[in-house]
Amino acid sequence: MTTFGMVIDVSRCTGCYNCFLACRDEHAGNDHRPVTAPQPDSGHRWIDVQEHERGKFPRVRVDYVPLPCQQCQEAPCLSRAPQGALYRRADGIVVIDPEKAKGHPEIVLSCPYRAIYWNPVENVAQKCTFCAHLLDNGAKETRCVEACPTEALVFGDLDDPASKIAQLVKRAEELHPEFGVKPSVHYFGLPKRFVSGELAFADRMDEAAANVRVSLHNDAKVQEATTDAYGDFAFEGLEAGASYVLRVAVSGYRPHEVAVGTRNDVDLGTIVLERA
Ligand code: SF4
Ligand code: SF4
Fold it and tell me: For the whole model, what pTM was predicted?
C-alpha cells in the first residue's frame, strides 16, 4: 500500500513563493488529463502561501503557512460531489475528474480548507493533485517540493515505515484538526501564541535591563525566559486561550506580577521595575 503525504515545516518557510511558482509552471496552460485540465492564467493557488502576521509593532511575528489540498482520507469534498466527479486513488490522492465534474461550481464550497478553485475557462473545479501525472511517470516528489529552497516541504509515502515522512509525521500536527477529515498533509511549527515585553529599571532608564529572568506560570507548568541585550523577553509557542501569570523578581526591586490571557498574542510593552 502507498499513501502519499506531505509534511510542511512552517518554521522553515520564508514565504519565497517558489512552490507556488513551480505549481504554476507545471499546471498553467498544461493539460494533464485524466488527472486535471490546465490551470487558468490567474486566480488559482493550488499551494497557497498564507501570510500570518501576529502581534503589534515593534514585536511582530510573521509566519507563512503553505496550504495545498490536504488529500484528506475522510474528505468532505468526496462525499458531497456528484457521483464519480471526485475520487480517491489507491495512493490516497483525491482527484477532481476534469470531465465528470464539469458544470459543478458547488464543489468549490465542499472543502473546509478552501483548497478548491473554480476554473471558468474549463468550467470545472480544480485543486492540487500532488502532481499525480508526474508520480505516475516515476517522479519521486511534486514540483513544489522540488522547488522549495529551504526543505520546508517533505513528500513521500506515509505507509513506508522507512521513509523520512513516515518518521516526521509521528511528531507533526494537523492544520485544523477540528475538521476531523484525516488529512495526509501534516505540519510542524504552526503559529501559536506569544507573550512578549520589555523590562526597564525605574532608576536606570538609560540602560537596558539585560539578562533578567522572567517567568510565566499556569496550573500546568512554569516557563522561564531571560531578557536580551535590549531588555526584551518573549515566550513562544503558547496554546491559544490559556491563562497565565507573568512574574518578575529582581533583587533590590519590587516584584512585578501581571495576569495574561492568550486569546490573542500579547505584547505587555515596557514593564518598569521600581526600587524596593
Ligand atoms: S483539502 Fe479539501 S479538496 Fe483536498 S481532499 Fe480535503 S476536503 Fe477535499
Ligand atoms: S518554496 Fe518553500 S520556503 Fe518558499 S514559500 Fe514555498 S514552502 Fe515556503
Answer: 0.88
How remote is the CA of residue 145 from the centroid of ligand 2, in Å?
8
4 CA from centroid of ligand 2 (Å) = 19
Per-residue pLDDT tens over the stretch 196-217 = 999 999 999 999 999 999 999 9
CATH number of 4-188: 3.30.70.20
Q: How far is CA 251 from CA 22, 228, 273, in A?
A: 57, 18, 11
Q: Classify domain 193-273 at the CATH superfamily level.
A: Immunoglobulins (2.60.40.10)
CB-hemisphere CA count at 13 Å for 94? 27
Ligand 2 atom 2: the closest Cα is on which residue? 148
Cβ–Cβ < 8 Å for 256, 248: yes
Which residues partner with 95 through β-bridges?
A: 87
Domain coordinates in residue numbering, the chain: 4-188, 193-273
Residue with the smallest CA separation from ligand 2 atom 8 is 13
Same fold, 4-188 and 193-273: no
- The finding on whether 95 has its CB within 6 A of some atom of ligand 1 is no
